[in-house]
Amino acid sequence: MITFPNAKINLGLNITEKRPDGYHNLETVFYPIPLEDALEITILNDSKQKFVLHQSGLEISGEPETNLVVKAYLLLEQEFQLPPVDIYLYKHIPSGAGLGGGSADAAFMLKLLNEKFNLHLADEKLEEYAAILGADCAFFIKNKPTFAEGIGNIERISVGTCKTGCLCLDPRRLFTNKTSLPGSFIERNYKTSGKRMEKLHVQ
C-alpha cells in the first residue's frame, strides 16, 4: 500500500512570542501544496525486526529510529501489536525548508497504517497521535488549508482554497552552508509587538 505525503507552506507568519521551551508561538495559515514524497509499507514476513526502513531520494540524516515515519509506526505498533513492516520512503520534499515534509510523512504513515490494518481510528484520534509526533503533524491528517496558532498544533478554522499559482524557493540557498534555515536568522530579522510582526532593518 502506497501513499504520497505532500508538503505545506505558511501563508503569512506572525510570531507572537518565544516560549520557555524554546519554541515560538505563531499565527499562520497552513496550506497544502502538490510537492510530494512517496511512502509505501508491506508486511515483513519471517523477521525478528519490527521494521526495516528503505530510504531513497534526498538524503536524510540520523538513524532510522529517529525518522518520523518509524516513530509513527512504533507509536501504533505499541498499542495495536502491528506486524513487522518494510517501510519504503522516497524523499522529494527538501528537509529543513519549512515545508513540513517530515511531519507529512509521519501523519500519512498513521493514516496508511490505519487503513492497511483496519484500525478504524477516526481523524480526531489520528490527530491526537500525530500531535505526539510533532507540532504540525496533526495538520496533515485532514490536510486542508487551516489557520493555526500556538506552535502550529492549535488549529482554529478551515480557510478557502486559492486558485493562483505558487512558486516555492528553498530558503537554504540563501545561506552558504546549505543547512536548515536557522532560528537565529528569524530572531535577528523579526521582532514581535503584540500581534504584529515587524521587519527589522539589518545592516
Fraction of helical residues: 25-40%
Order of helices and strands: EEEEEHEHHHEEHEE
Q: What does the main sheet amount to?
A: 4 strands, mixed
N- to C-terminal separation? Answer: 52 Å
Shape: globular
Layout of strands and helices, then pairs:
Elements: E1 2-3, E2 6-18, E3 24-36, E4 38-43, E5 51-57, H1 68-80, E6 85-91, H2 101-116, H3 123-133, H4 139-142, E7 146-149, E8 154-158, H5 183-189, E9 190-193, E10 196-199
Parallel strand pairs: 5-6
Antiparallel strand pairs: 1-4, 2-3, 3-7, 4-6, 7-8, 9-10
Helix pairs in contact: 1-2, 2-3
Describe this structure in words.
- The protein is α+β, with helices and mostly antiparallel strands and 203 residues long.
- 25% of the residues lie in helices and 32% in strands.
- The protein contains 5 helices and 10 strands.
- The strands form 3 sheets. The chain has a 4-stranded mixed sheet with strand order 1-4-6-5, covered by helices on one side. Strands 2-3-7-8 form a 4-stranded antiparallel sheet. Strands 9-10 form a two-stranded antiparallel ribbon.
- A hairpin with a 5-residue loop joins strand 2 and strand 3.
- Helix 1 runs parallel beside helix 2 (101-116) and helix 2 packs across helix 3 (123-133).
- Mean pLDDT is 82; it is low at 190-203.
